[in-house]
Amino acid sequence: MSETSALEAALATNPDDHQARFDSAVVLNAEGKRVEAAEALVAIFKRDRTGTKTARARSCSNF
User: Fold this and answer.
1) How far apart are CA 57 and CA 7, in angstroms?
2) What pLDDT does residue 53 have?
3) Cα(29)–Cα(54) distance, rounded to whole angstroms?
4) pTM of the predicted model, to two decimals?
5) Which of 18, 45, 54, 59 is the most buried (most CB within 10 A)?
6) For residues 63 and 57, what is the distance between their CA atoms, to the nearest angstrom?
7) Is 2 left (phi over 0), alpha (psi -120 to 50) or beta?
8) Cβ(63)–Cβ(29) under 8 Å?
9) What pLDDT does residue 13 have?
10) Weakest mean pLDDT among 16-20, 26-30, 36-40, 44-48
11) Residues 19-34: pLDDT tens digits?
12) What DSSP designation does 44 have?
């Protein structure tokens, strides 16, 4: 199973797995799929209404 497939399976099981979604965004970005990566990051911000937003925002600036 590829890394992308494993992350998609994790998200299918738990759509609120923000780490899997973030990891997916990193993989998509590395594959040159910038729009899909950005959509994954936006989904994190929409779903994650807790204090982890700031840490994720700092991580997103690496893109």
Assistant:
1) 21
2) 54
3) 21
4) 0.76
5) 18
6) 11
7) beta
8) yes
9) 96
10) 44-48
11) 999 999 999 999 999 9
12) H
Cα atoms in the Cβ-side hemisphere of radius 13 Å centred on 30: 8
Cβ-proximal residues to 57 (8 Å cutoff; 6+ apart), any chain: 45
Count CB atoms within 10 A of the CB of residue 59.
15
**How many residues are there in the chain?**
63
Q: Are 18 and 52 in contact (CB under 8 A)?
A: yes
Q: Confidence class of residue 4 from pLDDT cuts 50, 70 and 90?
A: confident
Task: Tell me which amino acid residue 48 is.
Answer: D
Q: Cα separation of 20 and 7, whole Å?
A: 6
Q: Which amino acid is at 58?
A: R
